[in-house]
Specification:
Blueprint: E1 3-9, E2 14-19, H1 25-31, E3 50-54, E4 57-58, H2 69-74, E5 76-77, E6 83-84, E7 88-92, E8 104-117, E9 120-127, E10 140-145, E11 150-155, E12 165-170, H3 176-184, E13 190-197, E14 209-214, H4 218-230, E15 237-243, H5 252-261, E16 265-271, E17 299-304, H6 306-318, E18 325-331, E19 337-341
Parallel strand pairs: 1-7, 14-15, 14-17, 15-16, 17-18
Antiparallel strand pairs: 1-2, 3-5, 3-7, 4-6, 8-9, 8-13, 9-12, 10-11, 10-13, 18-19
Helix pairs in contact: 4-5
The structure holds FE2/S2 (inorganic) cluster.
FE2/S2 (inorganic) cluster binds near residues 40, 41, 46 and 66.
């Protein structure tokens, strides 16, 4: 028996290692050739100090100079001492290069291209070595766009337990991936991608969550919901989804299906276009009810274009609420991702 340890480095690259309950995370990492920072290996120096985002573990023996009780209560941990009691997600304060590791590259076959509307395309990949690919719900990969010499970053809309990887793409005139998907893509095409990457991933649900999506920023949130559907949350989870025009709306049926299988999940959507037939017209900021912020006892996951992300952050700040957890990711038309955390 072993548990899966996700090591998320500060450059966003994530490596997964298997760890038995009777070995330390540091031992398991070294066996997997991931050299996380270590010095004393004895709980005395604090060099290996990391932050545990989710999971249960025995923290082992250590002295205060390495890890104080307050730090341990916050979630800081010492991989050279800790042994897992479940799967873990650790934030490691070093680059992947410093740990002599890197994101892996995978081959895949294009399995499906679905044009939802002139503005949104979804595509699906069959990954060659699927069992060798793990990711955290919400993360992204960098895909080499066939025949272009360019790569673009896209979040998986599928969950980690699903065999195929799915992605949502907003089509933009002259866009590298847009051009490929619209003009040249054929089922059976070969692609390569690198990853997984990103710090925008679902943490352990210990309080209510508010998920906010702008356009194809829905993709990583769908991946999170897929995980929640398999490990139902006991805390309320509310999703607000905003788009510019009616044609940009996708997967409302999937959201309704998740509301059926995740008892604590609710959602709403809005369309900015005044001519829309949607019940709610305007921006997601108009749908954020103060009760949904639970007086700050809430984890917010926000993904969308920069203007939307900045507007939501400003709106929440203007309400005088400081969320316990605030994770957001901005993407540009070139599908460059900026992930950040404001707590
Ligand atoms: Fe010194 Fe872990 S390496 S406390």
């Amino acid at each position: 028996m072993s548990f899966q340890i996700a090591l998320n480095f500060e450059d966003g690259i994530t490596r997964f290692v298997e760890c038995r309950p009777d070995e330390t995370v540091a031992e398991a990492s070294y066996k997997a050739r991931v050299n996380i920072p270590l010095d004393c290996r004895d709980g005395a120096c604090g060099t290996c100090k990391a932050f545990c985002e989710s999971g249960r573990y025995d923290g082992g023996d250590h002295i205060d100079e390495a890890l104080t009780d307050d730090e341990a209560a916050e979630g800081y941990c010492l991989p050279c001492q800790m042994t897992p009691h479940s799967d873990l997600v650790l934030r490691v304060p070093s680059s992947s290069a410093a740990a002599k590791t890197a994101a892996a590259t995978f081959g895949a076959t294009l399995a499906e291209v679905r044009h939802h509307s002139p503005s949104t395309v979804e595509f699906t990949l069959d990954v060659d070595e699927r069992d060798g690919l793990d990711f955290l719900p919400g993360q992204y990969v960098t895909i080499a766009v066939p025949g272009t010499g360019h790569s673009r970053a896209y979040s998986m809309s599928s969950g980690p337990a699903q065999r195929r990887l799915s992605f949502l793409v907003r089509t933009v005139p002259g866009g590298v991936m847009s051009g490929y998907l619209t003009d040249r893509a054929r089922v059976g095409d070969r692609l390569e991608f690198t990853g997984p990457m990103g710090a925008f991933y679902l943490r352990q649900l210990t309080r209510p969550a508010l998920l906010l999506a702008g356009g194809t920023g829905l993709a990583p949130l769908l991946s999170m919901l897929e995980r929640m559907a398999r490990q139902p949350a006991s805390h309320p989870v509310h999703l607000l989804y905003g788009v510019t025009r009616d044609q940009d709306l996708v997967h409302l049926d999937a959201l309704a299906d998740y509301a059926e299988v995740i008892p604590s999940f609710t959602f709403d959507h809005c369309v900015a276009d005044p001519a829309s037939g949607a019940r709610n017209k305007g921006f997601v900021t108009g749908l954020i009810d103060p009760p949904a912020l639970h007086d700050g006892d809430v984890d917010i996951y926000l993904c969308g274009p920069p203007a939307m992300v900045d507007a939501v952050r400003g709106h929440i700040a203007s309400l005088g609420v400081l969320p316990a957890g605030f994770h957001y990711e901005r993407f540009t038309p070139a599908a460059v991702r900026e992930t950040a955390e404001a707590a």
